[in-house]
Write a structure and sequence with these properties.
about 290 residues, mainly alpha, MetI-like fold, about 0% strand, membrane, transmembrane helix, transmembrane
């Protein structure tokens, strides 16, 4: 009787409703609350007096914010292009059935097992002008060797690009390799029969048919760029000066260090809008392709 009653009263759909209710309250509710805070003069504690878009005006006239946006563009373009190029090249090598392919994949996938904090600290030690690569080479006798990009305001941003590519290229390799392994073998037979060079076959035949795979890689890398905080904190802490400042670090600093809740919320909403604008072409193309 009890088992029968339990079967009659259990509603699986209520579990789903409960889950979406939690998501709506804590996720979307937080976004709405942050959006409202960006329209107030909240500092350490929330202030619910509406002041309009004053915080956004302060944000987009803030030199530090403008520099962080410029840094994000520089880092994002170089990081996405470099990671895609390097990861695709590794995937092509692995797709040729090279020897010790499993070892090859493991070596380049290993950075993914390490957090961005550990990655940043490792590269910080390697690029340290005193104890890193520069100190090692000078200790071998080349006293004039210089590699001080980490402390050079004009080049520090490129050290983040190097570390980011090293960390993420393995993931792109795996995704692209999965797409390459899904190519029909009859297509490869036709390519060999036509005598098409291998590089041309990849560029003009194989990769154009893998646009959804490449688009997914770009979306993943774009999310890394917008959320770029761990790597910056571990490697440069935004320095020298604000040479490697990023929007995510700007928002966190104003939330906790400068206790300016209103301006930090405005920065967070600006990052959210930017993310939606960058992802809009991808979702539009997916919608058109399905319809």
């Amino acid at each position: 009787m009890r088992t029968w009653l339990h079967r009659q009263t259990f509603r699986p759909d209520m579990t789903v409703v409960f889950f979406f209710g939690i998501v709506a309250v804590f996720f979307y509710g937080s976004i709405v609350w942050t959006g409202y805070m960006s329209l107030t003069r909240s500092t350490l504690m929330p202030n619910y007096n509406f002041v309009g878009f004053d915080q956004y005006i302060k944000l987009f006239t803030n030199h530090r914010w403008l520099v962080s946006c410029l840094n994000m563009v520089i880092f994002g373009v170089l990081y996405i292009v470099g990671t895609l190029a390097f990861g695709t090249l590794l995937a092509v090598f692995a797709d040729r059935r090279i020897r010790a392919e499993s070892l090859f994949r493991t070596i380049f996938l290993y950075p993914l097992a390490v957090s961005l904090i550990v990655t940043g600290l490792s590269w910080r030690w390697v690029l340290d002008p005193v104890n890193g690569l520069q100190g090692l080479v000078r200790g071998m006798g080349w006293e004039n060797f210089t590699f001080d990009w980490l402390t050079d305001p004009d080049r520090a941003i490129y050290t983040l690009v190097i570390a980011g590519i090293w960390h993420s290229a393995g993931l792109i390799m795996v995704i692209i390799l999965a797409g390459l392994r899904g190519v029909d073998e009859d297509l490869w037979k036709a390519i060999r029969m036509e005598g098409i060079p291998l590089w041309r076959a990849y560029l003009q035949v194989i990769f154009p048919g893998m646009r959804p795979v490449v688009a997914s890689c770009v979306v993943l890398l774009m999310s890394d760029v917008i959320r770029g905080y761990d790597l910056v904190i571990a490697m440069t802490k935004g320095g020298p000066g604000i040479a490697t400042e990023m929007p995510a670090k700007f928002a966190v600093d104003y939330y906790f260090a400068r206790v300016n809740l209103g301006l930090a919320s405005a920065a967070s909403i600006a990052m959210l809008v930017l993310s939606l604008l960058l992802l809009a072409p991808y979702f539009y193309s997916e919608f058109r392709r399905r319809t």
